[in-house]
Write a structure and sequence with these properties.
Elements: H1 2-27, E1 34-41, E2 44-51, E3 54-55, H2 58-65, H3 69-109, H4 116-119, H5 121-138, H6 144-160
């Protein structure tokens, strides 16, 4: 009777251990690569990121990118450049508005005939230069986000091998 009990307990333990190992293998999935697709909304386009065919939010996308060192560094550079671009654009816009106001004040004080530019050429030139600088700063190409996704996908593919 004890041999049967011992054999039976060994078989049950082995089966439970095998099931535990199988369930661990089944439940643990390697991260899939991030895929970007362009979606059209009327005349505008947006980028939709997906993993395993399911769309993910921006927060979960950033969490995935922050899980590895290479993509995390690229994501931080993307955020840094985006922040400095917005600050630079805001400064240029503020100076441009201030220069337009100063040009208007100077033009109102002058009784001479002519356009705003002929009455206040320095302030108008400053305003135009700042507007051009604002458009350039807001239009900077920031490809660090794409580099972060590519680095993440390369990392995942290397782990999957």
């Amino acid at each position: 009777m004890s041999k049967i009990f011992l054999t039976l307990s060994i078989l049950i333990t082995a089966a439970a251990f095998a099931n535990a190992q199988d369930s661990t293998v089944i439940n643990v999935k390697a991260d899939s690569t991030i895929k970007a697709s362009t979606v059209r909304h009327g005349k505008y386009y947006s980028t939709l990121y997906s993993v395993n065919g399911e769309p993910i939010t921006q927060a979960s996308l950033e969490a995935r990118l922050m899980s590895y060192d290479g993509p995390a560094l690229e994501l931080q550079q993307y955020k840094s450049i985006r922040r400095s671009s917005h600050i630079t654009g805001f400064v240029f816009a503020s100076v441009s508005i201030g220069a337009i106001i100063a040009a208007g004040i100077q033009a109102n004080q002058s009784n001479a005939a002519g356009t705003l530019f002929s009455k206040a050429p320095v302030f108008c030139s400053i305003s135009i230069a700042c507007l051009i600088g604002e458009f350039i700063s807001l239009g900077w190409r920031n490809d660090h986000f794409e580099k972060a996704i590519n680095a993440y996908n390369n990392q995942v593919e290397q782990q999957g091998r």
